[in-house]
Each structure stands twice: as C-alpha cells, then as structure tokens.
Amino acid sequence: MKLSMSMISWYLKDFHPVVSIQDDGMTIDGVRFLFDENMERENRYVYFLRADIILSDIRHADSFIIVNNRSTLLFHQADMNELMNRLLAAFDFFNSWESRLMEAAFSHYPLQKILDIGEEVLDNPCAAGDFTLNYLVHSYKEGQATDPYWEYSKKNRSMHPAIYTAPYRDLENHLITELSDRPTLVENVYEGGAPVLMIYIRENEQMLGCLTILQSDPALTEMNVQLSPFLNRFLSKASEFANPNGSLRPAEGILSDILSGITIPQENLNRLQDFLPAFPLYCFVSRNVYRSDEISRKLFLNVLRQNPLYYMPMIKDNRIVFFAGDHVYRNPDVYISGQDYRNNIVGISLPVYEVSELYTGYLQALSAMKESGGKPGIYDCRKTAFSYLLKELSGSEMTGRLLHPAVGILKRHDEKTGSELLKTLASYLECHQNLTNASRLLSIHTNTLKYRLQKIVELCEINFEDPEQIRYLQLSIWLDQERLR
Q1: CB-hemisphere CA count at 13 Å for 109?
Q2: In this structure, is the dihedral angle defined by the CA atoms of residues 233, 234, 240 and 242, taken in order, positive or negative?
C-alpha cells in the first residue's frame, strides 16, 4: 500500500520527530537516500538526507530529515542506521497490516476482529456498528482517554441516548445535516469530549453501518482521515454484514441473497419484511435492448429510487430489479412506460404474497422476459406463463415419449388418408366438447363432426367421459403443437 507522511511520522514516533506536514496524501511507495544537493524529487518517494544539506542552521549539523513534497520530519540526535532501517521497515509494517486486513475481510471474520486489526494503526478508540447503532463493537487500548458517552456505548453496546437527538456540528460549530462515506470530523456532543471522526461503512451502493473514531490523540487525526475509508472496505466484508445469516446483513443484501436462491434464516427474512410494504407485490425485471453498459443501468436505477412507488430497486445479474404494488401492476402503461421503457424488455411476475416467495417472483419475471423474442415491451407472466410452460415441457426429450398415444395414432392416420382427425380432436376439446361450437370452428356439419369423433374413439379407445383422460389429451396436443413450432 502507499503511505503518507502522517503514517510515516506515526511509525517513527519513538524518534520524536519535529513534524511539519502540508498537502499530505497516501502517495508514497518508496525511499531515496540522498546526501548531496543533486536531487530530483518525486512525490512517490520520501527522501532521507542529512538536515544540514538543506538547513543552514548549525544546530542541525547532526540531524537528519525526511522530505516529501512540502512535508518534513526532522530528527535530532538519532542514529542514522537505526533511523534508516526503521524507515524501510515502515513499508513492510503497513503492507503486513494491509495483508492481515485482507485475510480477515475475505475470510469474513467478525466485525470485532477486523476492527481490532484496524485499530492497531488508527491508534485512537474505534467503534463500528449498524445504522440503528444498537449493535456496536469497540476497540481501544488500555489507558486511552475517552468520555462518559463513549464508556456508556462500550458498556451497553449501543449509543448513548443523547447521540440520537443532539445535532451534528463540525469543529467550527457549523451544522452537519448528513454524514457520508467520506470521513467527517464531528464535535463531541459531550461537552469537553474529544471530536469524533465518523464515516459510513459502504459496500457498492449499500450503506451498511457507521465507523466512529474518537480523537483522543488529535495528532492522529490526519492519519485517521486517510485510513478510515481504507479500513471501511474491509469492515464491509465482516461476517455480520456479508454472510447470508449475518446479524447486520442489510435489507438490500438479504434481498440479493434471496434472488440468488440462497436459503435465508427466518430472522433475516423478518428484517427484510420491515422494508417492504403490504403484500401482494410484483417483481419487475428490466433490461435495455440496446445498452448493456454500467452507466445506463446506474442512471436508470437512480430514477427508480426517486419514485416511492418502486421498492428496493437494485442491479442483479446486469438487470434492473424492483418490486411494486397492485396499483402499478394494474396500470403498467402509466407507471412503467412513463419511466421511458421504450428500449427495455420488462418482465412482471405473478403476485407475491410473502417474503419467502420473492425468489419465485424473480424467476417468474425472468420467464416473462424470455417471451419477448428480444422485442422491447412489457411482458406479464400471467399472460406468458402457460406458453412458457408448454415451451419448457415440449423441449424435453422425455415429453415426446409421454404424450397421449392418440397424438401419434391420429397423426399417422391423417398422413395416410389425408383426413384431419387430430385437428378435429383439438378443436373439439378446445370448445369444451360442445358439438355446435366445434362444428362452427371447423366449418363442417355437426353430423360430420360426430362421424369423425366416432372414428377417433375407434382408433384410440378414448373415453370422453373421463376428465383426467381429457386433460391428458389436451395437454399432449398443446405440447405436440409447441414442439412443431
């Protein structure tokens, strides 16, 4: 990882440097040792040299200086070799710290464990938890200064009640209306307490929780500002946030797990329920026919999130997924087309009546999209489900072997004689065995229809009084017709 002068100063604190840091940033990835004036400085290096080369004061004759851009660390009465070795070790130390964080994060260690590793470098009291602040983990070393509010939260694993009502203000007493995923230094609501650095823990589009760092040692603030976003990337992978059964799994994450077919603990299903309105709901899945880039998806997602009629919109498998109530479902041309779906294929599920059915709704919406043939429009599963079922069943090799024998018998008879007995049977069943309607549909006389039906019974031994056989016959004819398309 790249270092900053604040990080190097902290690592070399045992040498008691005189610190002057300006325009600090995590840009340093190496060291150059120079003991003459022929220097071409680059921001990606720190330069170690004798102080008297650039400082004319005779008091610096036995001093050393570390320089980066306009920042300096001045060391008096330090052993050169010891200081040089320690400076080189700083890079190994921080890289090792990063490696341990990565291992903890991608092994989904508990939040407490990842925070403990982070605090080794942040070196100020840290706490992290969910947005309700009712679940908090703390990490700080013995002897560090805190305040009564901080001690209360550590003891009770929740924030002090005053935190919920007091306004946030910066150190110049300006009101802070909202935090973000960038570190913000907030005045402590406890009078006389140290400021608190606050930053949202974020994973992609999801805000998961909050990291707070009590600035007991204000000299560490700049380094804490630099490293808190870095640490947040690893905190977001903690088991409480990342695992499907994690106690702090966000609603969007729980829903994403459900739509991936992952089994979710009942406790998390109950938590997701709190983020959804009354059922029934319908799942909507949308894909742009002409655009598959991230820009178009993100812009479209932002539009949906601004409309209160759409619940929990997200990107899933490069498609836009959201849920809506019965009002939107019954007026799709108003609400859906109004969002400029002219270039989109939109699939709508059957009604979903509980959280455990959300995955089924997602699959239903996907099946409706498959009926589009790539043509933009709104496709309702209620209207496409049967044809989809026929298509799926007809595509199975076993389906052809299990069709009612009458289908094959009548096909062969029609091919030999030029008759239309299979068509006659299909029309008769389609008309619910009504002779008059079937005759009209086939444009033949009723007596002709009776003759043909008698022939069908003789050839196939069909019992038109058996409801189960009639359903079997009709399904077999539908599947056979689908196979021929």
Answers
A1: 16
A2: positive
Tokens of 393: 């069943």
Rounded Cα gap, residues 235 and 201, in angstroms: 7
| Nearest partner of 241 among 345, 350, 343, 128, judged by Cα | 128
| CA atoms within 13 A of residue 223's CA, in its CB half-sphere | 23
* Cβ–Cβ under 8 Å, residues 155 and 256: no
DSSP one-letter code for 77: S
Q: Quote the percentage of the chain above a pLDDT of 70.
A: 96
Structural domain span for residue 60: 5-98
For 308-331, the pLDDT digits (tens) are 899 999 999 999 999 999 988 988
3-state DSSP assignment of residue 206: strand
* Structural tokens at position 274: 């709190």
Per-residue model confidence as pLDDT tens digits over 369-408: 988 888 998 999 998 888 888 887 877 788 888 889 999 9
What is the C-alpha to C-alpha distance for residues 52 and 65, in angstroms, rounded to an integer?
9
Domain boundary, last residue among 200, 215, 242: 242
How much of the chain is helix, strand and coil, in % rounded to 5? 50, 20, 35
- Return the structure tokens found at 208: 């998961």
pLDDT in tens, 460-476: 989 999 999 999 999 98
- Residues 361, 457, single domain; the answer is no
Q: What is the CATH number of the domain that holds 421?
A: 1.10.10.2840
State whether 383 and 289 are in the same domain: yes
Distance of alpha carbon 170 from its chain centroid, rounded?
31
Q: Which two tokens stand for residue 338?
A: 């109004």
pTM of this structure: 0.70
What is the sign of the dihedral through the CA atoms of 456, 457, 461 and 467? Answer: positive
